[in-house]
Amino acid sequence: MPLLSNDAFLSQLNKLYEKSRQQRTVYVTMKRYAYPQRKDTKALADPDTEYPCIVRATSGSTKISTLVNPHDTERFHQHYTNIAVLHMDSLKKKVKVKKPKASKAATKDATKAASKA
Amino acid sequence: MVYLEAWDDYQKAAEELYLRGPLKTRFVSEYRHKEGTLVLKVFDGVKCLKYRTDKQPDLKKFERLTLSLMCKMQNKREADMMDVDEAAKEGAEEPAITTPIQSPPPPAGKKARKKKKN
């Protein structure tokens, strides 16, 4: 499978998690991508050199990968964890998800009213 | 193959292991839906650290470790890494960071308010 853009990778990853609900395992691997600098010892020794991060995902025989550049990290991480958390729902739940604080009073009254009605 | 029990130990050991060999070390997450297990692995070709969980609250820790290791892989500075949480609390200070999108209040609340007024 060729290298995908970040967004394409994320949507493919979504499908991968969905397909693997029955029996498969999804592996997501992350590694520093330093291939262009492999012979450049100066760049490798420089503590300020920034590298892309290669992210690969496999499940069964499907393989996808993407390169995440340093300035895309936050966005990618946010989307990636959203997808991961969404699909990792067979884990044991311990704490119930809290309701947002803002409409707490309103919802309380509403539940009372609803139960009366 | 070493399974660590305590999360704090695992995170510390994983980050140390990564920094010792940043070019060789990889970070793998294995998720088995049927068994409901998530296994994290940091491997540098010699030493392997693993953490196994079947609890949902551990996902938050997994998120944090992922971000921390990604930043280390890209050689981003620690300060940049911390900004994600701070920006969410204090509002973005740097223009480079997009402000987190606030989720709209749940529709149930709105309906409830309307009901109350009527």
Automatic annotation (TrEMBL), chain A:
| InterPro entries noted in UniProt | Signal_recog_particle_SRP14 (IPR003210), Signal_recog_particle_SRP9/14 (IPR009018)
State whether keyword Transcription applies.
no
As for family, the record states: Belongs to the SRP14 family.
Q: Where in the cell is it found?
A: Cytoplasm
Name of this chain's protein = Signal recognition particle subunit SRP14
The protein's UniProt keywords, in alphabetical order, are: Cytoplasm, Ribonucleoprotein, RNA-binding, Signal recognition particle
Quaternary context: Component of a fungal signal recognition particle (SRP) complex that consists of a 7SL RNA molecule (scR1) and at least six protein subunits: SRP72, SRP68, SRP54, SEC65, SRP21 and SRP14.
* Stated role: Component of the signal recognition particle (SRP) complex, a ribonucleoprotein complex that mediates the cotranslational targeting of secretory and membrane proteins to the endoplasmic reticulum (ER).
The UniProt gene name for this protein comes to SRP14
Q: What is the lineage of its organism?
A: Eukaryota, Fungi, Fungi incertae sedis, Chytridiomycota, Chytridiomycota incertae sedis
Q: Which GO terms describe its biological process?
A: SRP-dependent cotranslational protein targeting to membrane
Query: What is the superkingdom listed in this entry's lineage?
Result: Eukaryota
- List GO terms (cellular component aspect): signal recognition particle, endoplasmic reticulum targeting
Q: Where is this region: Disordered?
A: 96-117
From TrEMBL, chain B:
| Coiled-coil ranges per UniProt | none
GO-annotated molecular function: 7S RNA binding
The organism's superkingdom is given as Eukaryota
Q: Where is this region: Disordered?
A: 84-118
Output a single Gene Ontology CC term carried by this record. signal recognition particle, endoplasmic reticulum targeting
Q: Which GO terms describe its biological process?
A: SRP-dependent cotranslational protein targeting to membrane
Residue ranges annotated for the SRP9 domain, each copy included: 5-73
The name this protein goes by in its record: Signal recognition particle protein
Q: Give the source species.
A: Geranomyces variabilis
What's the name of its gene? Answer: SRP9
